[in-house]
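Input record (one chain):
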Amino acid sequence: MTLLETQHVDAHVDFSGLGLQDADDTWLSMFPDGFTQGPFLSEQPGRIDLTSAGHTQTVSVDAEIWDGPPTHLDGVWDEVATARIECRSGELRLWSMTGGPAIQTISLPRAPAVWNVRIYCRGRAEAARASAVGVPQGVEQYVAQFWAE
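The corresponding structure, as predicted from the sequence alone:
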């Protein structure tokens, strides 16, 4: 498979929660409604909820757009999970629990569509320690690999 594009977004996390949702929010339950602290990743209609290891921080997110199922990323990752997300607008936004959406969006090349996504995360232990005494920047890192069904 071929990597078509990589987009980078820095997103704020508070109360250990982060949501990835369709920018067209007229048809879905807005983040953080229904968010439950728990597993690394959970699916909601039109969104994916992520539980971060750090209470308050800025995380680094690289979104990769692929033309089919990508191979797994090399390296050591603390968490890896796969999900599906319906996106009607062609844009996804990362949301914090109380701070709203990140400024940048993730643009998907086809909409409306259902996308598969494999999300990787590392730096979780370091982020938990650092957020206990401050507001770390980019310690917890995510890679989200998207490919259409």
